[in-house]
Amino acid sequence: PLYTLAHDGGALGDRRWAKYGTAIDDGPDALPVAMTLKQNYPNPFNPTTTIWYELNKAGKVTLDVIDAQGKKIATLVNGQKPAGSYAITFNGQNLASGVYFYRLTSGSHSIVRKMLLIK
Q1: 0.70 cut: is pTM over it?
Q2: pLDDT at 58
Q3: Distance CA 57, CA 41 (A)
């Protein structure tokens, strides 16, 4: 918190300390500094979950869901995306309970995270 001292100008001086919150607002135009892939939520999930990712530069992006044997189950994103923050919902309604992975790829960079479907 930020504290400020005020004086009312009187002979005795009525000093008051005021407490103010402080914050830095990056604003809606702030871009991520790196490509990131957040943990899905909820996790474990049944049957839907949300996956968030951020791109620090424009480019071709893929977001795939992969089973524990390495087989691609779904492609959630496949195309050009501008830099920014994104969220996508995955529906595992037709899948069996188990561990799945989701992989974000852009250029030569890939990030993989694990999620758990429990029915």
Answers
A1: yes
A2: 95
A3: 25
